[in-house]
Amino acid sequence: MMEGKVYVITDETTCALFRLMGAAVVKSNDPDETLRKLKELLGREDAAVVLVSYDVAYGKEDEIREIASKVPRPVISLIPGRKFKPPKLDPNEVLMKALGFG
Fold first, then answer.
1. Of 9, 52, 86, 99, which one's alpha carbon is 20 to 30 angstroms from that of 22?
2. Tell me, what CATH number does 20's domain have?
């Protein structure tokens, strides 16, 4: 079993909370910077999970999902932020995409 760190890309205000939980925090100020920092983390051997806050990814979610779908490691996931929440998912749409019809 491989071990690694949990990295969180988030805004400055939220950084302290994730540090208290033991995550390695990467501060970002805007969506373009978030993409750059995410790509940097892809090259790190110690990165097992990368959580990206919607607050610093707003408008780049599709690009982040595309990157996440192409790499086996680290696991990349978008998480709710204080300002921006993920869109509501339609379970039927998710199922159709999973089956290759969406």
1. 86
2. 3.40.50.10580
